[in-house]
Amino acid sequence: MANANVLAKKQEVIDEIKSRINDSHGVVLFDYRGLTDSEAKELRRALRASGSDYKVYKNTLMSRAFNELKIDIDSDLIGPSALAYSTDQVAPIKVLTDFAKKHEAVIIKVGIIDNEITDKTKLASLATIPSRDGLLTMLAGGMIGIVKDLSICLDLYSKEKE
């Protein structure tokens, strides 16, 4: 039987994984085998720039954490896996998708968006969504267009009534 200290340390790691998953709206599991040290640093910098991060855990500990959270992704925990997480739903997906285009070593396995398991195809479609700032800019542009058209109409109407 394992030492009580070892079991306590393992439980701490499991609790850490669970808290990262619970605190994050977007979680992505990916295979990182084949990345050099400089590429791994580049990926970490890109993730941090978007408000995300990643960490590598043992698959058995990740499996226990996911099972305790009632999330069944054991079939995707084959081979080494890293866990990317963020409070933004799509930030880690976008960064990993862009990074995977340049580095074939990165393979996205599965995602968990707002505690819902998301497969590769849905992750690919989410990666094409503009960022929150981009969406807000598009919304503001649309609203300005409506206000501009309204002001033109009101101006023409006032000139007609004169």
CATH level-1 class of the largest domain: Alpha Beta
Strand order of the largest sheet: 2-3-1-4-5
Percent of residues in beta strands:
15-25%
The separation of the N and C termini measures 94 Å
CATH topology of the largest domain: Alpha-Beta Plaits
Helix-strand topology string: HEHEHEHEEHH
Secondary-structure content class: alpha+beta
- The CATH architecture of the largest domain would be 2-Layer Sandwich
C-alpha Rg, in Å? 22 Å
Determine the fraction of residues in helical runs and give it as a percent range: 55-70%
Residue-averaged pLDDT: 86
Largest sheet: 5 strands, antiparallel
Question: What count of structural domains?
Answer: 2
List low-pLDDT spans. Answer: none
Tally of helical segments: 6
Q: Explain this structure to me?
A:
- The chain has 162 residues and is α+β, with helices and mostly antiparallel strands.
- It has 2 domains: 4-129, 2-Layer Sandwich (Alpha-Beta Plaits); 130-162.
- The protein contains 6 helices and 5 strands, in the order αβαβαβαββαα.
- It has helices spanning 4-23, 37-49, 59-68, 91-102, 120-127, 132-161; strands at residues 26-31, 52-56, 82-86, 107-113, 116-118.
- It has a 5-stranded antiparallel beta sheet, with helices on both faces.
- A hairpin with a 2-residue loop joins strand 4 and strand 5.
- Helix 1 packs across helix 3 and helix 4 crosses helix 5.
- It is elongated, with a radius of gyration of 22 Å.
- 22% of the residues are buried.
